[in-house]
Each structure stands twice: as C-alpha cells, then as structure tokens.
Design the sequence.
C-alpha cells in the first residue's frame, strides 16, 4: 500500500532531543520553539518512544490501538512505547479526518492511514540515517524492535542513537506500508496501555483534579426545560461551614466552598424558586402523542440510500406499495434515554480577564476550547484545555455545557480556580437525551418473498431528522420520511446514534415478515443478503455459535443483523433467553459475530462488543426518561435502573476479518442489533411482539 506524502518533519528543542513527526496541514518548521508541541512521535536517546494521540480515553482503548498501528509500522520496541494526549491546538484539529473528536467509532476507523503513515515515515528516516552513517544502500537495511540493522547484519544502531541524524534526512515523497504478513503488532491482542494506571490509582479523572487555590462547587439548574431562576436567598447556604460563595445565573445556582460536602450541604439549604415555561410538557404521554401526530407530516425530510436518485426511488417505493400483492405494516417506538455515565459531569476551570485554563474529561477538546473562545471572547491561544481520563462518555461528553458552566463560575467567583461537580441528579435531569422516535414501517414483497420496497415514515425529537437509515439499510429500496419535532428538552448523540433506534425498528420488522411468510428468520435474512457475502458470513457465524434451531428445552433464540457500512463493520447477534409465566426474562447467552474488516486489537474489539451488548440490553429492557410537569421524572439509578450484574448473560464474541478491508469502527456497531434480537427472541418464546422500548412498558421484567 502506497500513501501520498502527508507527513513533515520538525526538530526538537535541541539536537538529539527526539524525532517528532507532525501530520500534514501545517507548514514545515525548520527551527521550532523549545516548547514545540506539534508532534505524533518522539523517540528519546534511551529508546523510549512516545506516541501522541488525539483520541480521548473514554474506556474504549483506542489509544492503545493507535499506538499499535504506529509502533508496528515503526518497528518500535513495544516495551518502550508510551502514549500521551496531544495538545488541543489547531495543529491537531485535522480537517480532513476525525482529529480531536472521540465519537462516531472513528478513532481508529477514521485515522488508521494517518497513524500508519506516521510510523512508516519515521522508520524511513531512521533507516536513511543509519545507511548514511554506514555508507550502505538504505534499501538493504532492515529494522526490528527499535534497531536498524546493516545489510550484512553485523552492525545495528538503536533508534534513539539515530535521532540526531534522522531529523536532518530528506522527507520521502511516499512511503510503503507493511504487507499483512510482516505485521507484528497490528492484529495482536495486546493488553491496553492505560490499564495499569487505572488499577493502581494513578489515572487522573476529571473528578480527581486538584489545582492550587481552587474552590469546589456544585450547582442546581432549573429543573424545568427552558425555565429560569426566579429568586433565591443565599443566606442559608452562606451559614454552612465551609461555604465561601453563592453565585447565580439565568437558570443556575452555584454554591462553592472548601469541599464538595460543604458545597452540597449549602445548596441543599437553599429554597430556590424557579420559573416554569408556559408550554412545559405536562404528562409522560405528551412526547409520544406529539410525535404520533407528526407521523407523515407534509414537511417531513426525505432520505434515500446514498447514490440513489431521490425522486426515482420515492416513485418506485410508492408504486411498489400501491401495487404489491402483500403489504406488511407495523408501528414502532422508543423513549428518551439518559447517558448515565459513572462519572457525572465535571470540570475544573480557571478563568481570568485574559486567559482560560480548563481541566476536563471531554470527547471534544477542540469544541471545548472553541466554546470558551465564543462564550468569553478570548483568542484561541488564550485557552488551554487539559485532558483527563473520562469516566464514561457514550456521547454525553460531546457537549460543552458543563465546561462552560465551570468557567462561568470561576469568573463569577472572582477568577479563582473552580472544580464544578454535578450531582447524579443534576446529571440525569439535565442530560442531552437520546431522541424519542416513532415510526410506521410498510413493506411490499417480491414474488420470492424478499423485500421489494420499504417505506419508513416517522417522527422524532432528533435535531437532524435523518434517522440513520440511509447509511445502514441492506435489504433493497427504501425511503425514509422523517419529521423533526422540536420539543423543549435537549437531545444529543447516544452510543450508536440513529441506528440504535432504526435498527430496532427494521430488524424487528424483518422478523415479523419472516414469521408472516412462514420462514425461519435466519434463512430469510440469508435470502435477503444473497448478494452480501460478508453479511451472510457474519449471520452464519453468530447462528453457528448459538446453535440456531437447537435451543435448549424451554429456551428461545432471536437474531438480528446490522450492516454498519458507514463504520466499515458488520455485526450479528443471537440472543438466547427464556420467559416464565410472569413474563420474567432470563437472559442465558448472547452470541456476537463482528467483522470490522481489519481487527487492530481483537481483544479490545471483543471488549467493546461485550460492553455494547450489555449497554444495549440494559437500555432495551429497563431504561427510559419520561417527562412530567416540564421536567424529567427519573433522577438517579433508583428510578433509572440499569441492568445488574446478576442479570448479565454469558456473552461470546467472535472477531472476524475481511481480507483487504480497512479497519472499521467497533464502539457503536454492537449496540443496534441487541434490542431487535431481544424482541425477536421474546416473540419466539411467547408469541408476543414487542414494538416499543423499553420492554418493561410491555409487562416484561428481568
């Protein structure tokens, strides 16, 4: 594989200090300042290789995967590899990729080529330096484990010793990446680099940050979506020992003190009066009723598959539904979901007249920096974002509200550093929720019972109204008609985004059609995927793992498939369960086959699949946010119950590969097939078709 020239060389603070590579998009630096930070790879004289990455550590292990890619192409000594976050500066905001955006399963999927190119180019420069020193042909030299070897293998030089010469070598116009057979780290189940620090307590999360002179604060935000603060008497809080100040904003009260305990006690002492909007959502059914009224709205957005002509596709689907001998139709829906990360929103900010420094667990350091610039009128170079470990994101930390509020508190408190920690209740009632959605699916069949055309007519509280179906529908012609229904509450990205909703609808509907036609659901999907060998391989693998068609007595199977081609991944789940006379579900096993194309770290892919399956099960079975009197009814895990350890089934994951394919994303694709596989298994067990989430609303428990 040959890649175009995308990497340039910059030298360090002094000769021999290190080899540092930056990514294209910045001019070459011939004499960088001593604090030059534009680097991806630094090799110290002792051989310690530091790889800078621009993927936040939110538990997904992408930093280790990116390091594997670089170190493999570099032929580095893995025992000497270290990883650190690159600074949140413009040089790392890669415009043609996904730099400094940890979401969308894009860390490795979107950046494999960039980091492989960085490693290969570094190796080229080191070899060139050694060849010049020995006076031999560079093409005859070879590298291994942090050393360059001479053609006759009688001489070798460590990477660290070659750096002073390597930084002066000419850049190659292009570099050749390793052949698959020559890879030593890519594809290997290497332990994650961040685990030791997390086990021994050295890892610093946002909530752990300590800054000299800081106050610790907590906040109460208006519980009504769109509401404001009417009045608060600060005196009771100021009477609490340890409370230093109380500050107010349009819809927030912040109490700051010497400890979180003092701040929280002070906040609890306040009798805050809020203003509720006149159009506040009154009952838990209002969201559903509003969406239902908007299904089929004349101003709905229309989406077809990429590459398809919209007008022709709409006409073909309409004609198929009008003339089809047999039409299937069903309505589906999902409720709002909270992200519910274990580490609630927090940030430590120090905002002075002309500078802002913030320590924050975020998925988007660039957006966080830009939010400070916009909110406080600062130049970009006056904002410094320090990244910490992230105790759960799932899309919630793609937002910047919690960092901005911490900085506002710092300014209001006289410019002292402030660590602002949200309580669980604030976190859950002021989330940016996964959208609520309803849809009506209609399908016309061909003579061989395959799907001729699918019409998806829906309404959603999503802020984009696309529904994700245009990326990931593998079964033929489809038209999505989606009405974006603007409501008072905020919505955002939740792990697996739109497909987490639409795949539940579609894969449940496909199962309904299969049963309606008297066909086995696995055999029917095989028929639908007749021209998709990768999809059939994944389906067959999951079915074989589960023993499809031979479930133990009293147990039932359900299957679902997700063709996540926008993420470069295909995944199928088979869920085995049983249901008793009281509609109690016992989860026995989940078999997952996942094909991300190229598996950079199979163990980490397996871990991502396991986590995604558990999250998908919990959301499908129990989780929901309902609104009443203008506010969220669920405030903590007592009213928003997540799945408990005792309910987690055996999970088996098979990581597959497609030869010649690029590395796909794996953080989100395992989630969407969970809910439909669960619904299909429940139907197989009970004959009851569940079309709305969560299942608890249909009388099922675990």
Sequence:
């Amino acid at each position: 594989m040959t890649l175009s020239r995308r990497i340039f060389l910059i030298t360090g603070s002094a000769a021999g200090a290190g080899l540092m590579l930056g990514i294209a998009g910045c001019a070459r630096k011939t004499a960088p300042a001593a604090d030059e930070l534009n680097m991806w790879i630094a090799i110290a004289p002792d051989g310690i290789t530091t790889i800078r990455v621009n993927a936040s550590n939110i538990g997904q292990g992408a930093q280790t995967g990116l390091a594997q890619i670089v170190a493999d192409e570099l032929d580095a000594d893995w025992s000497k590899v270290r990883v650190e976050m690159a600074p949140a500066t413009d040089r790392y905001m890669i415009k043609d990729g996904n730099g400094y955006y940890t979401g969308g399963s894009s860390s490795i999927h979107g950046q494999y080529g960039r980091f492989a190119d960085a490693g290969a180019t570094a190796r080229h420069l080191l070899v060139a330096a050694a060849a010049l020193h020995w006076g031999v042909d560079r093409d005859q030299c070879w590298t291994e484990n942090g050393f360059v070897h001479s053609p006759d293998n009688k001489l070798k030089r460590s990477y660290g010793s070659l750096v002073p010469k390597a930084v002066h070598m000419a850049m190659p116009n292009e570099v050749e990446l390793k052949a698959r057979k020559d890879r030593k780290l890519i594809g290997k189940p290497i332990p994650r680099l961040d685990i030791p620090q997390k086990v021994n307590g050295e890892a610093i999360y946002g909530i752990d940050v300590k800054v000299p002179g800081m106050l610790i604060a907590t906040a109460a935000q208006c519980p009504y979506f769109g509401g404001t603060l009417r009045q608060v008497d600060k005196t009771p809080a100021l009477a609490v020992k340890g409370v230093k100040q109380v500050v107010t904003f349009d819809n927030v009260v912040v109490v700051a003190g010497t400890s979180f305990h003092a701040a929280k006690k002070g906040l609890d002492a306040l009798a805050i009066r809020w203003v509720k909007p006149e159009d506040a959502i009154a009952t838990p059914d209002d969201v559903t009723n509003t969406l239902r009224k908007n299904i089929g709205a004349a101003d709905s957005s229309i989406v077809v598959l990429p590459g398809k002509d919209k007008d022709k596709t709409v006409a073909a689907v309409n004609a198929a539904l009008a003339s089809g001998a047999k039409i299937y139709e069903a309505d589906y829906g999902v409720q709002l979901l909270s992200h519910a990360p274990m580490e609630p929103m927090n940030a430590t900010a120090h905002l002075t007249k002309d500078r802002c420094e913030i320590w924050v667990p975020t998925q988007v350091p660039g957006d966080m920096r830009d939010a400070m610039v916009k909110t406080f009128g600062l130049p970009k170079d006056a904002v410094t974002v320090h990244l910490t470990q992230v105790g759960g994101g799932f899309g919630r930390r793609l937002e910047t509200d919690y960092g901005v509020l911490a900085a506002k508190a710092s300014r209001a408190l006289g410019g002292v550093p402030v660590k602002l920690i949200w309580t669980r209740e604030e976190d859950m009632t002021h989330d940016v929720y996964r959208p609520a959605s309803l849809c009506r699916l209609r399908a016309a069949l061909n003579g061989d019972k395959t799907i001729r055309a699918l019409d998806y007519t829906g309404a959603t509280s999503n802020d984009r109204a696309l529904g994700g179906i245009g990326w990931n529908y593998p079964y033929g012609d489809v038209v999505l008609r989606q009405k974006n229904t603007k409501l008072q509450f905020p919505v955002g990205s939740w792990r697996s985004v739109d497909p987490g909703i639409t795949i539940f609808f579609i894969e449940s509907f496909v199962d309904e059609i299969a049963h309606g036609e008297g066909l086995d659901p696995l055999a029917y999907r095989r028929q639908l995927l007749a021209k998709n060998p990768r999809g059939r391989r994944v389906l067959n693998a999951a079915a074989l793992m589960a023993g499809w068609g031979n479930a133990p007595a009293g147990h039932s199977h359900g299957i679902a498939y997700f063709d996540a081609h926008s993420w470069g991944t295909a995944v199928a789940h088979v869920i085995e369960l049983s249901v008793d006379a009281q509609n109690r579900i016992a989860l026995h096993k989940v078999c997952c086959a996942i094909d991300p194309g190229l598996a950079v770290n199979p163990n980490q892919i397996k871990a991502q699949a396991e986590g995604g399956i558990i999250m998908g099960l919990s959301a499908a079975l129990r989780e929901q946010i309902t609104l009443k009197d203008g506010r969220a009814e669920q405030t903590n895990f007592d009213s928003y119950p997540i799945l408990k350890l005792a309910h987690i089934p055996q999970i088996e994951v098979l990581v597959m590969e497609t030869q010649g394919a690029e590395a796909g994303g794996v953080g989100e694709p395992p989630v969407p097939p969970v809910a439909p596989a669960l619904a299909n298994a429940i139907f197989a067990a009970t004959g009851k078709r569940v079309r709305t989430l969560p299942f608890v609303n249909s009388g099922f428990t675990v």
Observations:
- Residues 1-38 have pLDDT under 50 and may be disordered.
- The chain has 17 helices and 31 strands.
